[in-house]
Amino acid sequence: MDAPGDAPAVAIAGATKTWPNGTRALDPIDLEVRRGEFLTILGPSGCGKSTLLHLIAGLEAPTTGSIRWWGGPHAATGRAGRRLAMVFQSPTLMPWARVDANVRLPLTLAHAPRDEADRAVADAIWLVGLAEFERHWPRELSGGMQMRASIARALVTRPDLLLMDEPFGALDEFTRQRLDSELSALWMKRGLTIVFVTHSIHEAVFLSTRVAVMGPRPGRLIDEIAVDEPHPRGDAFRLTTRFAGYAQRLSRLVAQACGGAAADDAPAAERV
Ligand SMILES: Nc1ncnc2c1ncn2[C@@H]1O[C@H](COP(=O)(O)OP(=O)(O)OP(=O)(O)O)[C@@H](O)[C@H]1O
Ligand SMILES: [Mg+2]
């Protein structure tokens, strides 16, 4: 049956992933992404976070188990109210195209009408604060600005569900905190549903309405906490004892996840 009106944005039931080379990346995962939430997946390097995000994006099929999007199959995504977009860990911009052409790419591929595309591109570039740089080349942008352009490219299709794989992982702490604040404001303004992957406990607490913690490979969900704090969360939130309390709870969960049943074949370096 197709999309009941109140179905979660994503419903994952018993999904596993074993790669063709035999690597068991995910043990059975049961997870629902609720509409409008900011869900962060937190876990050590190599635990299968990107694999899980690729399953959610429909870029890979689960080996066993099932995934539904708004109550329907992946083929039904892309319709109004069921659009999804992904932001990868590196900006993946085309170096031979200016910022506006990079941002326009998904619309070009979808053969969107020109006027409509012009408006959507200008809107997305403005939203990420790159209005003065739309005619620049990617090489003329800083790392943070390149990531903004990459986010604009994801936003240009007006997604309902935004999947973000450690988008700010390579940035310095100052830039990361600023982009975290902007992303939080964008999530509120656009009424987005976001699934965000990170290694950073502090980033998870600042951004999320819910944080799910994964254990080492083969990845599985260990536990989750709700970050029940009002939005918008200004920088002052980072200095509160409540913030520290959430961070402490998550640290304990991460320690428990990593100290528990670690995969025997996972090198220690993978268990950051
Ligand atoms: N395409 C692939 N083919 C084979 N193995 C893969 C593939 N992609 C990932 N893996 C393996 O699956 C496991 C999980 O990888 P994944 O990239 O999902 O981890 P991750 O949690 O995102 O790590 P990181 O935090 O370092 O990005 C790893 O052992 C990895 O080597
Ligand atoms: Mg990854």
Describe this structure in words.
With 272 residues, this protein is α/β, with parallel strands linked by helices. It has a domain at 10-83 and 159-270: 3-Layer(aba) Sandwich (Rossmann fold). Helix content is 33%, strand content 21%. It contains 7 helices and 9 strands; from the N terminus they run βββαββαααβαβαββα. It has helices at 49-57, 99-109, 114-127, 143-155, 173-190, 201-207, 241-259; strands at residues 10-18, 24-33, 38-42, 64-69, 84-87, 161-165, 193-198, 210-214, 221-226. The strands form 2 sheets. A 6-stranded mixed β-sheet has the order 5-6-7-3-8-9, sandwiched between helices. Strand 8 (210-214) and strand 9 (221-226) form a beta hairpin. The radius of gyration is 19 Å and the shape is globular.
Chart the SSEs and their pairings.
Blueprint lengths: L9 E9 L5 E10 L4 E5 L6 H9 L6 E6 L14 E4 L11 H11 L4 H14 L15 H13 L5 E5 L7 H18 L2 E6 L2 H7 L2 E5 L6 E6 L14 H19 L13
Parallel strand pairs: 3-7, 3-8, 5-6, 6-7
Antiparallel strand pairs: 1-2, 1-4, 8-9
The structure holds adenosine-5'-triphosphate and magnesium ion (MG).
The site of magnesium ion has 3 residues, from helix 1.
